[in-house]
Amino acid sequence: MDIIGRKPTVIAGSxxxxxxxxxxxxxxKESNTPSTPGESRILKRKNTEIIQLNNIHEEKSxxxxxxxxxxxxxxxxxxxxxxxxxxxxxxxxxxxxxxxxTLEGSFMYLEISLSLIFFIDIAMNFNTTxxxxxxxxxxxxxxxxxxxxSWFALDMASSFPxxxxxxxxxxxxxxxxxxxxxxxxKLARILKLRSIFVKIEEIxxxxxxxxxxxxxxxxxxxxxxxHWSACTFYTxxxxxxxxxxxxxxxxxxxxxxxxxxxxxxxxTALYWAFTTMYTVGYGDLHALNPYERFISIICMAxxxxxxxxxxxxxxxxxxxxxxxxxxxxxxxxxxKRYMKKLRLPLELQNKxxxxxxxxxxxxxSSICEDDVLKLLSDNLRDEISSRTHGKVLLLCKTxxxxxxxxxxxxITKLLRLETFAPGDEIxxxxxxxxxxxxxxxxxVNIFHQNTGCTYIILNKNNIFGEIGFFAxxxxxxxxxxxxxxxxxxxxxxxxxxxxxxxxxxxxxxxYFKSSCEDSNYKILGIKCYFCNEKGHVAKKCTNMVVSSRxxxxxxxxxxxxxxMINPHMGTGPKRKIRNFKYKFNKIxxxxxxxxxxxxxxxxxxxxxxxxDYKKKDEPKTPYRRERKASVQVICDDSDExxxxxxxxxxxxxxxxxSTYLCDDPSNASS
Length: 670
Known about the structure:
Layout: H1 15-30, H2 37-63, H3 73-98, H4 106-125, E1 130-132, E2 135-137, H5 140-150, H6 152-159, H7 162-168, H8 173-182, H9 193-203, H10 207-242, H11 248-256, H12 262-279, H13 290-341, H14 346-363, H15 369-374, H16 378-393, H17 398-402, H18 405-411, E3 416-420, E4 425-427, E5 435-441, E6 444-447, E7 454-458, E8 463-464, H19 466-471, E9 478-481, E10 485-491, H20 492-498, H21 503-515, H22 552-565, E11 578-582, H23 596-599, H24 604-616, H25 622-631, H26 640-647, E12 658-662, H27 665-669
Antiparallel strand pairs: 1-2, 3-10, 4-9, 5-8, 5-10, 6-7, 6-9, 11-12
């Protein structure tokens, strides 16, 4: 096959294109025929193109060295550490400012460690890629400029170690209070929490995780609003107390007749915050001076606004979910009315209802694939098809063995998803169809059409239909769904239309057909479901009757049919076998002679086959003839030689006398 002049269908400049070019060059080098001058020029040009692409790839790798990708797993874990650190700072800083709490000992070392973590985060942000207009930017200069213009000033102000300055300073008390209030700039990182949560939610695209993120964000917002309100209220109340105003702290101390502890002050202030937030105003603790009233007004305004936003968001989520459920219920009601109008059987109506429920359940949390692909460019569609369907297509070993990489990339776009209900027949033995099936969920029963013998049950990541697809032969078995099953299908006609500009594809399929003329499917890697040998199918396997893969239930069904011909077969205790010499005739035969109508009253097809077989093989041994007729139930498609081999019948001819095996001499004379 000459594929030199074929232009690759993958994206130029990508790694797939590089591999495709290398594949073409290797095929030319491995061929025995010498290259023509034209082929030599093409080979030289391809080699030059590979060198250029390698240089670009090396330059890109060098530029991206020691850079953190914004969507990498390690970066997400680091962002989670930053979230925990910011939440700690958001709690401890307002508390220490409002209640004049000085950090000492381990808390001081923890604060210094958090400042160090924030400085490391600044350094990492200078080396983390970002996306602009859907393109990942990996230039260090562009990354630095973008970070300086966005979050650098805020991160620097929130990372400064103010605690070290406060502990080492010998300034006056007022200066210390001023520096302590400057620490409030460290809370600026809280503004980044929302963006970090959104980024993590986009990376971990799970509906359950999205609900968890929204719930966590809502709970944290309520807790921090209450905490900050309590700290602010206590700060202004304490300030009013120093100005000789009546305040709630002064009243509490008068009631208790003692100085209350720091924990009691904080719990009391937090209690005021929650009662103000949830009761919108007046309670047993209320504002007693203008400063406290001012803070109460601000707290109630912020809380009312946030709760209005929260209730609106929750109601919209509930309405959206109810809309989907209502649409599904209307669809089911409409289908039921339609089926009742047609007077369909109840069993069929339930089957249709279960199918609609399954399809709706499998698609309720996802959008249509075609709608997504329409929004994307051709290159992105090709890349998505290669990523999603490429692995599925490679389950069939014939594709990577005989097809090029560019051909496989083109074929991946032709796969179509189909859904089947339990009991649906996908294939029927003997039909002519050229479809290949890849199971993505569910299970499929592969069985013999006439007898119902189960060959195998295929599950997820199994394929079937290769013989009809590649060789164009009739189906050698039937396929029926065991439960709700989703399969990706590939039609031969669509493959030919897609690759019609490649003449080697037609030669390849002709080669498949000629190689499989004698039912030898080694070229396709077909294995027998019974003996697991390559080259033949289970229908033609000589070990079909004694195969250990046949279900015991099926074997018992066949034994029951055998006993209808020979009631003594396989019954009673095992006894010692004795050999006697008798004439082998119709009189001394073991078993009862019955007509096919008595043996199989409901199976007219089998009765006709037995009569035809008796007419064909009339003379000689009636006992052997009855044995052959019984095996015809299982091996109705096998020839006479295969039946003899399966039953181990002695083909040695006897003239007058034969050796006959029986359990008792009396059986022979009866």
